[in-house]
Every structure is written in C-alpha cells, then in structure tokens.
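Entry:
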Amino acid sequence: MQDSRSEPSLGDLFGDLTRDMGKLVRQEVELARTEVTQKAARASKDIAYIAAGGALAYAGLLAVLAAVIIVLGTVGVPWWLSALLVGVIVAAVGYFLIMKGRDALKRADLAPKKTIETLKDDPEWAKEQTR
C-alpha cells in the first residue's frame, strides 16, 4: 500500500492547476502582445509607402505642373491643356505608389497566429493536468 501522505491532496492539485493556468494566461497575453507588435512594425513600412506616394504625388504635381505649364505656354500650347496633361501623368504615378502600399498591407497577416495556435493547445493541456 502506498502512503497517502506521499500523494498531493486534491486541494494542492487544484492550487497547482490554478497557479499554472494563471501563468499560462499571462504568457499567452505576452506572446500576443509581442506578435502584434512585430506585425505592426512590418505594416508601418507599408504605410510609409502610402504616405511617401501621396507626398511625392503632391510635390510632383506642383513642380511638374509649374514647369510644363511654363514650357508649353511659351511654345504656344494653351496653358490649361499643358496643366491637364501633366496633372494626369503625376496623378497616375501617385496612384501606382498608393496601390503598391495598399496591396502590401492587404497581404500582411496581422493576426497573432502563434498565440491562436497555443490557445488551441491550452484546453488539451488543462485536461491532461486534471487527470
């Protein structure tokens, strides 16, 4: 016969389980925080592409419009037509840069996949601890 004192009591087992579950939850929260922070840092690069595209499109629009309007205006092209042509070209370049950044953000997976996977394993772990 085994000595009943060598086995932990039911209260001790539940106390251990409660402590372990608390520790597990804290670790899961920390993992989720770390994973989301890393993914947000990657997404910030894509957001920078969008911002740079917008800023360049605006600056380019102003500079090119001014230069082309002056050049074309001096050679006889109506000022309004030169401004329209340059505006369409610069807007197309800006649109391309914005779409590039947007598409990269769409492909970015921001869900904390590691945390989700470990959360799926947690119920199995808890069941094993209660056996």
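The two ends are 21 Å apart (CA to CA).
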